[in-house]
């Protein structure tokens, strides 16, 4: 029986992007195909699987988090499949079971591999390398790394090159949040103003208001 490696499951508000402010259960999968060498500023702990569960066990974890956070699963509750890299594990049996339980599935992928969009109701791609595979989806969220740390978006020209031939409904630039330095708001705001529409600033509001 297939088991899914899960890092953590919790109920909160989605903090970033076009769905910011939405109540959501976060299902954080363990494992990433890129890793801390590619993204030394990565702010998530995805290495160790806290749970190894079949579909039924994942559903139980998710349901428990929804009950703790919201008192239950209201139809249409957002399930944010994240990681690590969630496309490594989310498959049809798990997607079907989560939808049958009433969830709307939003995936946050690094875009390095193609995502089967039939598995999700909302797809956010946040590429961490110059070359990435998943060029279309609901929102593209670029971490504006600036020139002092590794990343595919050191400046506005690099952002323009990165998004050539992409088709997304929403385009966001988000400050990199460096340990000990905080988000580079000033540079990122200036870049969004230079880029113009359809670009928007994405702020990690969960960090601003102090929730998980
Ligand atoms: S792709 Fe995402 S989860 Fe993986 S190391 Fe980079 S920032 Fe972290």
Uncertain spans = none
Q: Radius of gyration, rounded? A: 17 Å
Question: How many strands, which pairing sense, and closed or not: the largest β-sheet?
Answer: 9 strands, mixed
Question: What is the chain-wise order of helices and strands?
Answer: EEEHEHEEEHEEEHEH
Number of E-type strands: 11
Bound molecules: iron/sulfur cluster
Number of domains: 1
Strand arrangement in the largest pleated sheet: 3-1-2-4-5-6-7-8-11
* Straight-line N-to-C gap: 32 Å
Q: Brief overview, please?
A:
23% of the residues lie in helices and 29% in strands. It is an alpha/beta fold.
Description:
This protein has 212 residues and is α/β, with parallel strands linked by helices. The chain has one domain: TIM Barrel (Alpha-Beta Barrel). The chain has helices spanning 55-70, 92-100, 156-163, 185-195, 205-209, and strands at residues 4-13, 23-29, 51-53, 77-82, 103-109, 122-125, 136-144, 167-175, 177-178, 182-183, 199-201. The protein has a nine-stranded mixed β-sheet, covered by helices on one side. Strands 9-10 form a two-stranded antiparallel ribbon. Helix 3 links the parallel strand 7 (136-144) and strand 8. Helix 1 (55-70) packs parallel to helix 2. The longest helix is centred in the first third of the chain and has 16 residues, at 55-70. It starts with a strand and ends with a helix. It binds iron/sulfur cluster. The site of iron/sulfur cluster has 14 residues, from loops.
């Amino acid at each position: 029986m297939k088991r899914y490696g899960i890092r953590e499951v919790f109920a909160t508000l989605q903090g970033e992007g076009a769905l910011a402010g939405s109540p959501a259960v976060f299902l954080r999968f363990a494992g990433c195909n890129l890793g801390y060498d590619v993204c030394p500023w990565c702010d998530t702990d995805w290495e160790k699987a806290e749970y190894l569960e079949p579909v039924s066990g994942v559903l139980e974890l998710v349901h428990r988090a929804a009950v703790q956070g919201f008192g239950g699963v209201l139809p249409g509750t957002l399930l944010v499949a994240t990681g690590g890299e969630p496309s490594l594990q989310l498959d049809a049996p798990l997607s079907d079971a989560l939808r049958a339980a009433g969830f709307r599935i939003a995936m946050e992928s690094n875009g390095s591999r193609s995502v089967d969009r039939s598995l999700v109701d909302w797809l956010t791609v946040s590429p961490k390398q110059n070359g990435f595979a998943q060029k279309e989806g609901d929102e593209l969220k670029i971490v504006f790394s600036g020139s002092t740390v590794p990343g595919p978006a050191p400046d506005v020209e690099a952002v323009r090159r990165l998004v050539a031939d992409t088709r997304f409904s929403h385009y966001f630039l988000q400050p990199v949040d460096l340990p000990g330095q905080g988000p580079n708001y000033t540079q990122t705001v200036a870049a969004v103003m230079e880029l113009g529409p359809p670009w928007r600033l994405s702020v990690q509001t969960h960090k601003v208001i102090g929730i998980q």
